[in-house]
From TrEMBL:
Pfam families: Phos_pyr_kin
Reaction catalyzed: 4-amino-5-hydroxymethyl-2-methylpyrimidine + ATP = 4-amino-2-methyl-5-(phosphooxymethyl)pyrimidine + ADP + H(+); 4-amino-2-methyl-5-(phosphooxymethyl)pyrimidine + ATP = 4-amino-2-methyl-5-(diphosphooxymethyl)pyrimidine + ADP
Domain of life per record: Bacteria
Species this chain originates from: Heliobacterium modesticaldum (strain ATCC 51547 / Ice1)
SUPFAM superfamilies: Ribokinase-like
Residue ranges of domain Pyridoxamine kinase/Phosphomethylpyrimidine kinase in the record: 13-281
Record-level GO cellular component terms: cytosol
Pathway(s) the chain acts in: Cofactor biosynthesis; thiamine diphosphate biosynthesis; 4-amino-2-methyl-5-diphosphomethylpyrimidine from 5-amino-1-(5-phospho-D-ribosyl)imidazole: step 3/3; Cofactor biosynthesis; thiamine diphosphate biosynthesis; 4-amino-2-methyl-5-diphosphomethylpyrimidine from 5-amino-1-(5-phospho-D-ribosyl)imidazole: step 2/3
Database matches in PANTHER family: HYDROXYMETHYLPYRIMIDINE_PHOSPHOMETHYLPYRIMIDINE KINASE THI20-RELATED, PHOSPHOMETHYLPYRIMIDINE KINASE
Keyword Metal-binding: no
Gene that produces this protein: thiD
Family: Belongs to the ThiD family.
Enzyme Commission designation: 2.7.1.49, 2.7.4.7
Name this polypeptide is given: Hydroxymethylpyrimidine/phosphomethylpyrimidine kinase
UniProt keywords, alphabetically: Kinase, Thiamine biosynthesis, Transferase
Length: 290
């Protein structure tokens, strides 16, 4: 088997709970090699985001291009992209990356027929980070339009939470029916799959909770046990990285999504308190120390 590799494109969180630091730790836990292109530096503690220092957009895009054509990762995951020029530029770069795969496959494979499977294309997991858990905006004006117009058309799996799906669609999401409507609207922007996370909805009955995984062909609810949730951050980054890792290990999207969601849910009720503020996702349950 080829070395499983994921490149994460995200911001830096010095406290290690979110951003590239969290992504690389999750990838390592799944046994997947991680590369990272950094979009912005934050001043951030476990209590929240104190400041944001974006790197020049052209320079960020050069970093991404360098690492894509060097490592040739089969899976890329995005976190805080922050600037519209980075979001749109990544859409263009990813289109070129996919095209090169198609051209190479056309040279080495026999012509496609009903019996030859289509070549496996690289996978782009987009976690549309818009704000920190405490509400600090992590995207500049124009970012939503850049996502909708330039990045979602080339996205394989989009992983919004409820507020992110509301912002991208302009639709209010109050219950599971609204989740379906918003996820279908998101599919119209172009992603092949949408994993709409349900953690922000109050409606779930009793001790159950669900996320919605949807494509143009299928719809699945990923049900799980709702646990009392301590205040923690980095859950969105960790889930998208776990999903990217499972995809790099060769699992199909529905299996990878179910496994990643389960992995995170096992950790949500049992965070690590590493600083003075919120908890972070515990990387290895069996090694948990207070
Ligand atoms: N109280 C909870 N108990 C169990 N799982 C939860 C709980 N809250 C959220 N989750 C799960 O954690 C993941 C992240 O959910 P969510 O909070 O919606 O997104 P985000 O972390 O991006 O804000 C989802 O798989 C969701 O089902
Ligand atoms: C550098 C950086 N990137 C992303 C976030 C947001 O983290 P996320 O896991 O999406 O959200 P919360 O769990 O914090 O709600 C961040 N804070 N910093």
């Amino acid at each position: 088997m080829k070395l499983p590799k994921v490149v994460t494109i995200a911001g830096s969180d010095p406290s290690g709970g979110a951003g590239i630091q969290a992504d690389l730790k999750v990838l390592a836990q799944f046994g997947v090699y991680g590369g990272a292109a950094v979009t912005a530096l934050t001043r951030q503690t476990s209590a929240g985001v104190l400041g944001l220092f974006p790197l020049p957009a052209a320079w960020v895009l050069e970093q991404i291009s360098d690492v894509l054509w060097d490592l040739r990762p089969p899976v890329v995951k995005t976190g805080m992209l922050q600037q519209p020029a980075v979001i749109s530029g990544l859409g263009r770069l990813w289109g070129a990356y996919l095209q090169e795969y198609r051209d190479t496959a056309a040279q080495v494979l026999p012509p496609a027929s009903s019996t030859t499977p289509a070549p496996t294309l690289p996978i782009l997991v987009v976690d549309p980070v818009l704000s920190s858990g405490a509400g600090v905006s992590l995207v500049d004006g124009g970012g939503l339009a850049a996502f909708r117009e330039d990045l979602l058309p080339v996205t394989t799996v989009l992983t919004p939470n409820v507020p992110e799906a509301e912002a991208l669609t302009g639709m209010a999401i109050r219950d599971s029916g609204d989740m379906i409507g918003a996820a279908e609207r998101l599919l119209q922007f172009g992603p092949q799959w949408v994993l709409l996370k349900g953690g922000h909805l109050p409606e779930w009955e009793g001790d159950r909770i669900a996320d919605l995984l949807i494509s143009r062909e299928e719809r699945r609810w990923l049900w799980g046990q709702r646990v009392p949730r301590a205040d923690l951050h980095g859950t969105g980054c960790s889930l998208a990285s776990a999903l990217a890792a499972c995809l790099a290990l060769g699992l199909p999207v529905p299996v990878a999504a179910a496994r990643a969601v389960e992995w995170l849910r096992q950790r949500i009720g049992s965070p690590l308190f590493v600083g003075q503020g919120r908890g972070v996702v515990c990387q290895k349950l069996e090694e948990k120390r207070e």
